[in-house]
């Protein structure tokens, strides 16, 4: 049955009105949700009704009853985890992606979205200083970006010793070593599990979480066989960056593939004043990052970059008679990430990059680092606050004396709702972790954050 565009209009108009209300309320609403997931499930659940509801009414119900359970992650006062907001062009482009409804796996079938993603990929290589000609894929997030890159590494390193992992699998394959820093993100271990590696070899890190290049070299020398080394651009707690030039030199001396998990920190490469943090990162073989973090586009925006095009396409791609595939040039999108069916998730990335331009991206990234440094300076002057890390990028780790008091301050902050900061444990201490990632965070938001922490200290004295 043909559906007229008018059938969509009322529902879309209601969605637009509710979205406007949500965005207008962000500056004044508490960051935390006011109800629990159980409360929401009670309203939305129960037996499936026999009769349907018109689309506009569904949208009204959704907006009214979901709103109390929403976290204001787009607020400039959200400092939890490493989560950006959404720049306007990225959000609007994401809506268009849903309306276009393109299954963006094949260049032949969806040339518009494939071409837009290729353009975005070239801009990313330029911004981040990564090798021209590398494959760029758009994955669901940094976890699957890492997975994709490590699948390419597995294929290449086993092929180098005469083993075809696509044909033979892992049973009976030569032992493949994977070395990681002691403070890598746990999602890297998850990707390694998915790929059948099991637990990696752990290399010592310093007090800021940076891998020790000398310890890495020693570890590589203590064993033999094909190897993969995983490095990090942006420690979850300190924001610190591994010493890439020295660590990559050690890895390459032993024929290892080097992958860089740069979920949020790889964007430092776009800023001249921060580029020293990633010196030598372009010498690696693959990189993973996430545009929903530092670039502030909607979710479903992981980015994987692989220098060895043949490796990633051999590890990830597939061929079938019914698919009209591109056998030359940039390759099909489905050869660069582990999905055949997917939305055109690179289009919002292109829109954000085009709306910001190179200068805007640099200002966005540098501004988040400057806000973090300002917040650290101001909090260091507050009696009872300890800033535990060297604030080099966008992360702060705070303590307030004993672990017990730090937990109490954290509980106060999360219950208070003016800002959102998350608790964690680092270097043997309970901490309050602050991530300055949202594009809209400004000095007024920092004022509120400082006052919330002061109030928490007073309440827990």
TrEMBL record:
<keyword id="KW-0210">Decarboxylase</keyword>
<protein>
    <submittedName>
        <fullName>Glutamate/tyrosine decarboxylase-like PLP-dependent enzyme</fullName>
    </submittedName>
</protein>
<keyword id="KW-0663">Pyridoxal phosphate</keyword>
<comment type="similarity">
    <text>Belongs to the group II decarboxylase family.</text>
</comment>
<feature type="modified residue" description="N6-(pyridoxal phosphate)lysine">
    <location>
        <position position="293"/>
    </location>
</feature>
<keyword id="KW-0456">Lyase</keyword>
<dbReference type="GO" id="GO:0030170">
    <property type="term" value="F:pyridoxal phosphate binding"/>
</dbReference>
<dbReference type="InterPro" id="IPR010977">
    <property type="entry name" value="Aromatic_deC"/>
</dbReference>
<dbReference type="GO" id="GO:0004058">
    <property type="term" value="F:aromatic-L-amino-acid decarboxylase activity"/>
</dbReference>
<dbReference type="InterPro" id="IPR015422">
    <property type="entry name" value="PyrdxlP-dep_Trfase_small"/>
</dbReference>
<dbReference type="InterPro" id="IPR002129">
    <property type="entry name" value="PyrdxlP-dep_de-COase"/>
</dbReference>
<dbReference type="Pfam" id="PF00282">
    <property type="entry name" value="Pyridoxal_deC"/>
</dbReference>
<dbReference type="InterPro" id="IPR015421">
    <property type="entry name" value="PyrdxlP-dep_Trfase_major"/>
</dbReference>
<dbReference type="GO" id="GO:0019752">
    <property type="term" value="P:carboxylic acid metabolic process"/>
</dbReference>
<dbReference type="InterPro" id="IPR015424">
    <property type="entry name" value="PyrdxlP-dep_Trfase"/>
</dbReference>
């Amino acid at each position: 049955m043909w559906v007229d565009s008018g059938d969509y209009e009322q529902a879309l108009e209601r969605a637009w009105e509710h979205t406007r209300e949500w965005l207008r309320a962000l500056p004044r609403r508490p960051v935390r949700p006011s109800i629990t997931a159980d409360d929401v499930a009670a309203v939305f659940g129960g037996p499936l009704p026999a009769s349907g509801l018109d689309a506009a009414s569904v949208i009204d119900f959704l907006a009214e009853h979901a709103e109390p359970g929403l976290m204001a992650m787009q607020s400039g006062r959200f400092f939890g985890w490493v989560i950006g907001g959404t720049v306007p062009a990225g959000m609007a482009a994401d809506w268009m992606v849903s309306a276009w409804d393109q299954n963006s796996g094949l260049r032949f079938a969806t040339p518009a979205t494939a071409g837009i993603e290729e353009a975005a990929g070239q801009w990313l290589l330029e911004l981040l200083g990564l090798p021209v000609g590398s494959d760029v894929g758009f994955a669901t997030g940094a976890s699957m970006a890492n997975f994709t890159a490590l699948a390419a590494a597995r294929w290449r390193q086993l092929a180098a010793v005469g083993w075809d992992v696509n044909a033979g699998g892992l049973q009976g394959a030569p032992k493949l070593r994977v070395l990681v820093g002691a403070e890598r993100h746990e999602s890297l271990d998850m990707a390694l599990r998915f790929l059948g590696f099991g637990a990696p070899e752990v290399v010592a890190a310093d007090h800021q979480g940076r891998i020790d290049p000398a310890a890495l070299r020693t570890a590589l020398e203590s064993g033999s066989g094909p190897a993969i080394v995983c490095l990090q651009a942006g420690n979850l707690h300190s924001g610190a960056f591994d010493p890439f030039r020295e660590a990559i030199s050690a890895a390459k001396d032993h024929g290892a593939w080097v992958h860089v998990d740069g979920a949020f920190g790889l964007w430092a490469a776009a800023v001249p004043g921060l580029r020293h943090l990633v010196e030598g990162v372009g010498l690696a073989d693959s990189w993973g990052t996430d545009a929903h973090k530092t670039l502030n586009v909607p979710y479903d925006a992981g980015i994987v970059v692989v220098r060895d095009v043949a490796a990633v396409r051999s590890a990830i791609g597939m061929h079938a008679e019914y698919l009209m595939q591109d056998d030359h040039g940039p390759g099909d999108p489905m050869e660069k990430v582990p999905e055949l069916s997917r939305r055109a998730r690179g289009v919002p990335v292109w829109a954000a990059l085009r709306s910001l331009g190179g200068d805007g991206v640099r200002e966005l990234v540098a501004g988040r680092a400057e806000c973090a440094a300002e917040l650290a300076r101001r909090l260091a002057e507050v009696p009872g606050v300890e800033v535990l890390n060297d604030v080099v990028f966008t992360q702060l780790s705070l303590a307030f004396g004993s672990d017990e008091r730090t937990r109490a301050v954290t509980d106060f902050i999360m219950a208070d709702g003016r800002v959102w900061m998350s608790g964690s444990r680092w270097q043997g201490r309970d901490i309050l972790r602050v991530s300055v990632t949202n594009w809209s965070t400004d000095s007024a938001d920092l004022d509120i954050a400082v006052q919330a922490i002061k109030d928490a200290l007073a309440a827990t004295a």
